[in-house]
Amino acid sequence: MLEIRNLSKSFGETRALKDISVNFAPGTVHCILGENGSGKSTLVKILSGIVRPNTGSLTLDGRALPTGRPRALLDIGLATVFQEVLIAPNRPVIDNILLGLEKPFAAPMPRARRLEIAGEALAKIGAGKLPLDIEAGRLPLAHQQLVVIARALARDPGILVLDEATAALDHDDRDAVFECMEAMAAAGRYVLFISHRMEEVMRLSDRVSVLRNGEHVASFARGEFSPADLLEKMAAPGHARNGGAA
To answer: Sorted alphabetically, which keywords does the UniProt record give (predicted)?
Structure first.
């Protein structure tokens, strides 16, 4: 069990997260849903080690995880894909996929092995035909994002976090990524998916947690919620959504 306990984060006077506690089970796609400003991005940055919380803890099977240390979290098998397309545009696709896997002062990885790792990662998301030796910046934006997703998959992560990572993809590419997410969950991995698209949440979620104004307001298992239920939880009290009172 991956557990977040009493997590809080403030930026000056702004409280981005307020004493959040959520459990994530292996073998599930767990969606995090919320409106802009709900705290989703801050939660992802804490999970990936980019931001250190003011209070609270992360544990995996009862063992404390490091906070504020991206490399340490990568090394224990947690990989994050952000909505921003983070590539080295002047480097080949293969270098972008293997970025961070090859140690700076270690012997170079044999090219055959490099090709194998990059090809397998791309194949998992239906992108096996992408050219590996072209500069990544020459690819269309959607294909650049596939390269970023493949970079995360090349690490064979036990925990995969995707923060609006399919927003730039077309329908077919998005479906291939979804199938990969479902396969990872079926293999017992943790998949955490942040999205604002209700149809994606309804299709993928084994479990959904809703954030509102930096607070965790509800969690539902598959079959326990409808789009109306989620919209109601997302909306601030007293605000109507789609003609209904929240």
So the answer is: ATP-binding, Cell membrane, Membrane, Nucleotide-binding, Sugar transport, Translocase, Transport
